[in-house]
Amino acid sequence: MPYWRLSGFYFFYFTSLGALLPYWSLYLKSLGLSVADIGNLMAVLMATKIVSPNVWGWVADHTGRRMGIVRLGCLISMLAFAGVLAGDSFTWLLVVLVVFSFFWNATLPQFEATTFSHLGDQVHRYSSIRLWGSIGFIVAVWSLGRVLEGDGISMLPMILLVLFAGIWLSSLIVPEEAAGHLSLDHEPLRRLLSRPEVVGLLLVCFLMQASHGPYYTFYSIYLRSYGYSLSAIGSLWALSVAAEVGIFLLMPRLVPLVGLRRLLLSSFLLAALRWLIIALYPQSLVLIIFAQCLHAASFGIYHAATIQYIHGFFTGRHQGKGQALYSSVSFGAGGALGSFYSGYLFEGLGARSMFLVAMLLALSGFLIAWRYLPRVSFR
Asked: How far is the C-alpha of 163 from the C-alpha of 114, rounded, in Å?
């Protein structure tokens, strides 16, 4: 298994995400865009995930050339993002981000499927590879906080372009072969998607990412309004992903000890607690630090558990479609809804309201997961 080549792609991909998620909304604000416009532009990044992963997942499952699609998506998205340097109007940025995100969002689901193909029957090792993405995220948010302070925020597009180039170059050294040997023995997709546990899983994924919308879109702006410096905000983002790294290291032991279902249920309850704390106590640094540590549950445990559910439900030639559905339903539809509603709540009812709605979405996800997800053990 090409451990370091797989890990290298995750490192560069999530390093770019560590530059994009915490700071892109601040960059857009520096251009003079309104809160609603920022929410809509961030929603575009998520919304293309509804279509893009499914289109490319279908192509990958029928050609077996997942890494070819990953490399193409990385290259075109990098070239498309360069358009940000050519203009700063809302309409122009909207067009650029639609093209960029359509290809960028095609890459990770197919790379996830490739990773699982390389892992074979060692699925439990996924977290030890994926954690390098979390390390990359930490490097980005921690190092860029001071660099982007004040007028430095104007450097963000160039920094992102360099990181996107790193993603493309790292994709060139990941072997294709394992992605092409998928079993033909599988349940018809239509029948699979009619199973209550599969529908329930996709629905809770949608709700969890919808609850993260205010966090991914406006958390940095929210904290800035309470006097936090950009370096402090970067450190808080880094802390959350450090907690995520810790839980990824523990997941191979936690899954057999606790079980996927219990872990997933706990992630929704702790996510609800996290959003409640952020909504009610933004001026308490101690509580905000605690809330950031809960990222270990609201993303770390949640993602590691759901990715194993997806891999267990979607087998054989459905692996690419399964990863695509997971991406499009959760990060796509859920993330887009989250960015969309948070922008209008922020502007209409105040910033705290969007985190209270996020709490309700997480609690709804817990109830659905408790009702529909089975107790299973995937090897």
From this structure: 22
Residue 181, domain member (yes or no): yes
Dist. CA 257–CA 243, nearest whole Å: 20
Q: Where are the alpha helices (DSSP H) in the chain?
A: 3-30, 35-47, 52-63, 66-81, 90-104, 107-119, 126-147, 156-171, 189-193, 196-211, 213-224, 230-258, 260-280, 285-293, 295, 302-313, 319-326, 335-348, 351-372
One-letter amino acid at 105 equals N
Confidence of residue 116 (pLDDT cuts 50, 70, 90): confident
179: confidence class by pLDDT, cuts 50, 70, 90: very low
CA separation, residue 376 to residues 254, 300, 313 (Å): 14, 19, 10
Q: Taking a C-beta distance cutoff of 8 angstroms, is the pair 171, 65 a contact?
A: no
CATH label of the domain that carries residue 334: 1.20.1250.20
Question: Is 12 domain-assigned?
Answer: yes
Report the domain count for the chain: 1
pTM for this predicted structure: 0.80
d(CA 310, CA 113) in angstroms, rounded, equals 10
**Structure-block tokens of residue 29:** 């604000």
* 68 domain-assigned: yes
pLDDT band at 32 (very low <50, low <70, confident <90, very high): very high
Contact 173, 307 (CB under 8 A): no
Ramachandran assignment for 181, one of left (phi > 0), alpha (psi -120 to 50 degrees), beta (any other): beta
- For Cα atoms 158, 331, 371, give the angle at the middle one, nearest 5 degrees: 160
Whether residue 178 lies inside any domain: the answer is yes
Alpha-carbon distances of 278 from 58, 109, 220, 235, rounded to whole Å: 39, 30, 12, 16
Q: Show the domain range for 310.
A: 3-372
